[in-house]
Amino acid sequence: MNDRDEQPVRCNNCHAILAESPNLAGENRQPCPTCGSLSRCLTASINETIRVSSHISMLQERQGEAMGFSESEHHGTASGSSLEEDGNLQYSIEGKSPQGEQGTPAVCEVLLARMKELGYPYDTVLSGSEPADCVFADSSKRKLPQEVQVARASVSQGLWQQLRYTSAVNRTLTTAMVVKELCDAIQLKERKLVPSVRCSLVLALDATRLPGFGFDRIVQEFRRSQGSWAASLGFKSIWLVGPITRLTWRLDSEHM
After folding, report:
1. What gap in Å lies between CA 72 and CA 53, rounded to an integer?
2. Is 32 exposed, middle or buried (0-12, 13-18, 19+ CB in 10 A)?
3. 211 cis-preceded (ω within 30 degrees of 0)
4. Model confidence over 116-157: pLDDT tens digits?
5. In terms of domains, do 202 and 129 share one?
6. What are the tens digits of pLDDT across the range 84-118?
7. Is 111 left (phi over 0), alpha (psi -120 to 50) or beta?
8. Residue 165 and residue 230 in one domain
9. Which of 6, 50, 68, 182 has its CA 20 to 30 A from that of 203?
């Protein structure tokens, strides 16, 4: 936004202030009553307001293993996670509780980027229709479009209610507790979708506000203990989607 502040017209010779419009054509000017000059000095100042916003995220790794992640406010929330000395996951969320489909486009974009890194041919995100929230397409049309449904990585009502009422959550979970939360989220979707629908869907668990769910140690334990179970549910594939591709993983597999 900017405001233009016009200054008075002055004689360019003696600098006297003149009762003259700054838009007056030169041929219509009257001589300066002080010195007779027709030369004018016109000045203007512009006051401009620039709004700058930034989003900063930081990943902490130790010997190639994700141990911590934090980010500034993004889409209304700021979050952070860290693995403690005892192996437990500590996480915090500040801001607004997500509503409805809020954040779904961002989840689809991160998942698409991760799949491209792994060699999947999709390169475009399209709008989806029920039950798909989005569709991944291959612009070369060598591969059929893939439907994706997005769901929360945690279906703990206490978590989201607390965020809604207090705008802040701080919790500590064991690895086993995180694995159970992921299982609960997957199972909730599995119960709502018949096998003939599940087989064509990629299930994307939204952990963009829960980055610690995508730490290597958590994913390794899920795959070790629940990978075969997740694969047996009949989804095309199941992914955990963090705020960045580094924290985005396919879950229905026993291998990293």
Report:
1. 11
2. buried
3. no
4. 999 999 999 999 999 999 999 998 888 899 999 999 999 988
5. yes
6. 989 999 999 998 877 656 679 999 999 999 999 99
7. alpha
8. yes
9. 68
Q: What range does the domain containing 229 cover?
A: 96-250
Say if residue 156 is exposed, middle or buried (CB neighbours under 10 Å; 0-12, 13-18, 19+). Answer: middle
| In the chain, beta strands by DSSP E | 2-6, 9-11, 17-18, 40-41, 44-48, 57-62, 65-74, 77-83, 89-95, 124-127, 134-137, 146-152, 168-173, 201-206, 237-241, 249-250
Structural domain total, the chain:
2
Residue-by-residue DSSP string for 126-161: EE--TT-SEEEE-TT-SS--EEEEEEES---HHHHH
Instruction: Tell me the Cα Rg of the chain.
Output: 29
99: Cα separation from own chain's centroid: 14
Report residue 136 as tokens.
């991944």
Beta strand pairing call for 44-48 and 2-6: antiparallel
